[in-house]
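Researcher: Re-running this chain for the archive, since the previous output was lost when a drive failed. Same request as before.
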Amino acid sequence: MRGPFRMPAVERGERVRWPADFGRRFMVFVDVEEEFDWAAPFTRSDHTTTAIRALPAAHRRFADAGVALTMMVDAPMAADPRAIAILRDVAGDGRSKIGAQLHGWVTPPFEEVVGVRNSYAGNLPPALEAAKIDHLTHALTEAFGQPPIAFRSGRYGLGPSTLGMLAARGYRIDSSVRAYHDYSDHHGPDFAAIGPAAFVRDGMLELPLSTAFIGAARSQGPWIYPKLARLPLVRGGMARSGMMSRVALTPEGMPVAAVIAAIDALLAGGEQLLVFSFHSPSLAPGHTPYVRDARDLSAFWEWWEMILDHLARRRAVPTSLDDVLASLDRRPAGADRTVTG
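Model: Regenerated structure tokens:
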């Protein structure tokens, strides 16, 4: 049994150089998935797909703000006729897109033992991971009439072979990396050496979930934070004192003030594309730890209102999957062009 996958740091030639007119942009990814008990053991069958009914109203809110949604859809949702109809309607706005999200434990073929380690699809034997990707890709193509070109491995479960498999199947974009995060203590991948910048590797454009360090010692975050992995009390103390915190761009578990500080840190550091993400079950109370009741749901939307207002003040504009790919293809002469259509 091989150890957890550790993604090597991004080399200078891999980092994307956007066109001169790209400016500051942001994207919103939605993990469109089944509802399940986050505290319970993984299971193939104990889930529902009711929260999707909240997506149309959520989409209207985002659309009114000019925000396109990139909806990363997994196998149970692609098998639900009601979910398919709702997602088709949302994608009909002309800017929102359907992508693929692999939850291996609920995606055929079912050959592995269900458990924490195998919940990271990149830990599976490559042939089995590939077979699950093929099943999901076929299901989404049948449901929506065209193959997906964007992929996310659930639980950020990228493996050493995943990007090559995706490129060989016509995918162009992956968003399975959570910048500066290390899941190896739970058998998951280690992205501690990966920052928030977009990069090209193994024929794929990688768009990590944007993450920044904030606080007085933020410049030392990429170096010192991994060294404190086994000292959670120290990490907590640094966060409470304002010395240093690691903040991902998501409404789930991230206070709005911290995310605003992270946005400012990312923009000050020269990042031109910010990537936000959340889970579709958070659109209805009672399905995730982040939105347990009506009060939490109200706070969820207040979070987005403040974040979108701040992005507008910082002149960061919403962008779509198609816009990003078009900009990638217009990169300066000499930029890496290994991602092809």
